[in-house]
Amino acid sequence: MRILVVEDDKHLLQVVSQIFQEEAYQVDSTDKGDEGCLLAERDIYDLLVLDIMLPGLDGLSILKKLRAKGILTPVLFLTAKDSVESRVKGLDAGADDYLVKPFAAAELLARARVLLRRNGKIGMEGELAYGPISLRPNEYDGYVEKQPLKLTSKEYELLKYFLHNREQILTREQIFDRVWGIDSETNYGIVDLYVHYLRKKLASLGCDSYIRTVRSVGYMLKGDKVSVQENANSISHT
Question: What are the percentages of helix, strand and coil residues in the chain, rounded to 5?
């Protein structure tokens, strides 16, 4: 799971980021509203944790811009404002939850888990599956039926991203930013290389056709034998 934290208090930003990192979440963070908005618009995150009072764009403005673009990533607001009016304003703007400072780490994590479950990003059983393909997080490997794929760490993350966004078109840029990170020194060509590696392992178990190429756009995970070119102009927000 990848989380973006936008908080102008640098100490709190570090603390919140560490809380999530200690639970094995991937975390990007910034203390600037404008930068946070640009990062969020990449649409590669499973959860956004936003302070309301930020330099540049405030949290409400960021949220309104994202929702106007059709980006539906769940948003948890962090704020020092405890009035009913403030909470209602945030929720009406499209926030999914609201946590007032100061807060306990356990409550922050619990609220995050609720939002991720609600949006289908994590399940109660821990296993993620589509057709015969599944991931077992406790083993950090993928399976076709009961046969292990013996995935490398990047292949595992790539397959996990496909499974979370099954039957949705993913651009190379989205895949790169999510799996390798926006600060990676490699280039988008690495995506095609690792899709090739993953397909090769799936092919050995008869499932390479599940990863479809969308010409000039990217890839999608889909089991049915249908054309994806017709949908190339309707790239889904993940």
Answer: 40, 20, 40
CB-CB contact of 77 with 52 (8 Å)? yes
Does CATH place domain 2-118 in 1.20.120.50? no
Read off the pLDDT band of 228 (50, 70, 90): very low
Report pLDDT digits (tens) over 86-144.
667 777 777 889 888 888 888 999 999 889 887 665 544 456 788 899 988 778 899 99
Domain with CATH 3.40.50.2300 in the chain: 2-118
Question: 167: phi > 0 → left, psi -120 to 50 → alpha, else beta; which?
Answer: left
Cα→Cα distances 212→26, 45, 149, 215, Å: 27, 22, 19, 9
Using alpha carbons only, how large is the chain's radius of gyration in Å?
Answer: 19
Domain with CATH 1.10.10.10 in the chain: 128-231
Cβ atoms within 10 Å of 130's Cβ, excluding its own: 17
- Let me know the angle formed at the C-alpha of 114 by 110 and 120, rounded to the nearest 5 degrees: 140
% the chain with pLDDT above 70? 87
With contact defined as beta carbons under 8 Å apart, do 162 and 219 qualify? yes
- In angstroms, the CA 191 to CA 69 distance is 25
- CATH code of the domain made up of 128-231: 1.10.10.10
